[in-house]
Amino acid sequence: MKVEELLVYGKAHCHSDFAKILLADLLGLNPLELLNYLSFIVDSEKCERYKRAVLAIENGTPLQYALGKVNFYGNEFIINENVLIPRFETEELVENTVKYSKEFFKDPVDIIDLGCGSGVIGLTLEKKISTNSVDLIDISDKALEIANKNCEKLNSKAHILQSDMFESVEKKYDIIISNPPYIRDDEEIEEIVKNNEPSIALYGGKDGLDFYRKILSSIKPYMKERCLIAFEIGMNQQDQIRSLIQQYLDNVEVICKKDLSEKDRMIFIFKQEGITR
To answer: Residue 276 pLDDT > 50, yes or no?
Structure first.
């Protein structure tokens, strides 16, 4: 089939922008270049791959899963239905963590990414700040398969460990970062998210705070004397998480940051005797 014929097929089954993005990606082109290749003949194997991706989107699959990849903070990561699709808010979490890390630490750091999923947080931090080690932790073996592929793709030296949060962890860290499940069990979310993304990575119990409790209640043995803890949070959870921090940690400074939509989305906890930043 010709490129033009495939575009007609794609537009008949999904949004025209998605049809162009899928075909351009398959052919290694920029979507804007497709007009220059309308008469180009696409081999049958690629035609079938394209049609499967188009029909998957028509049936409710997110574009990122259909592509099998996503751009996060300037790097391309492999993803599938076993890991969350990274959001822009998580890029902001990484951006602020990089900023605070450079202010708070002078030497290379040890980082743990709890509930790492595809590994986008820990692997991006590894590229952006000076590190001794980066540990990617998740309970899901299927998620860790994707994290391992991304390690290979990015030539990372990160260590991958299957663990229920800190359960199998045996060292201390300068930076402990997590984007844990924080949606309430009864909370209404978009159907495309509910029907496609892994529920284990979305829901955080009756009040959405189960994983913050789990992390904060057991975190002390894994913190170095000078430690930065970074969380992505739900936009209405700041006060409750601050209360949990007060319950489990002493002598810390807590900063909540808003995202670009002016919603509370990140909490940073600084631990150090006589904190100076």
So the answer is: no
Which residues have CB under 8 Å from 12's CB, separation 6+? Answer: none
Residues whose CB falls within 8 Å of the CB of residue 179, separated by 6 or more in sequence, listed in order: 90, 93, 115, 117, 121, 231, 232
Q: 9-51 pLDDT, tens per residue?
A: 999 999 999 999 999 999 999 999 999 999 999 999 999 999 9
Measured between alpha carbons, how far is residue 94 from residues 38, 57, 265 in Å? 40, 29, 12
pTM of the prediction? 0.93
Catalogue the E-assigned strands of the chain: 69-72, 75-78, 109-114, 131-138, 159-162, 173-178, 223-232, 252-258, 264-271
Q: What is the dihedral of CA 245, 248, 249, 253, to 10 degrees?
A: 10
